[in-house]
Amino acid sequence: MSFLSHFNLSDFDLIGAEGQIKGSYKGNFSDTSVNTEDISIDAVSGDEIRRKIPNGREEVFDVISSSYHDRFHAIDAHFVIKTRRKGLMDAGTGGNYVRVHGNNARVFIGSTDNSTNINSDAAALYQQIRSALSEIDGEKRNNAELALRQMESATSPKDRLKGYQSLISSLADHVTILAPFLPALTGQLS
Fold first, then answer.
1. Which CATH class is domain 3-89?
2. pTM, two decimal places
3. What pLDDT was estimated at residue 122?
4. Among candidates 119, 114, 125, 90, which has minimal Cα distance to 104?
5. Residues whose CB falls within 8 Å of the CB of residue 59, separated by 6 or more in sequence, listed in order
């Protein structure tokens, strides 16, 4: 018979520092530790332990350290995981859980975002440029549209670069029309 079978055992998840679920286990909780007989657990400092409580929220603990204890007489091998209570959180939120989604989604931890978002949808980009070119009359517009078509239909980066150079040179007098699109347009060159 397991020595922990004499205690109340709770189901809990071990969440890695990167937000991945490392596993689900059973253990006995105290104010400063969790004991589990599942010797496959790999709890390290920086991980989180989360157990669901009856109100649907999760009680969250930081893992401070873990230590393995060999079988000793009637006490089976087990892990003692030293913890620090973080508090109650809605299930799947806060702590080590990170959800990133959407176009140009990023995570910054202790840093500043100095990046530029570049639209990677080439068809939409070319359509927006065509709309902007409608502000130009005459031959300059025709030359710019021809260069844009050359860039759009290019099958190699070298040909795309030629189209880009033609487009930019044909619009030297009207560069303010293309200015909002230049970062995304240059992104199409690679």
1. mainly beta
2. 0.49
3. 79
4. 119
5. 50, 51, 53, 85, 87, 88
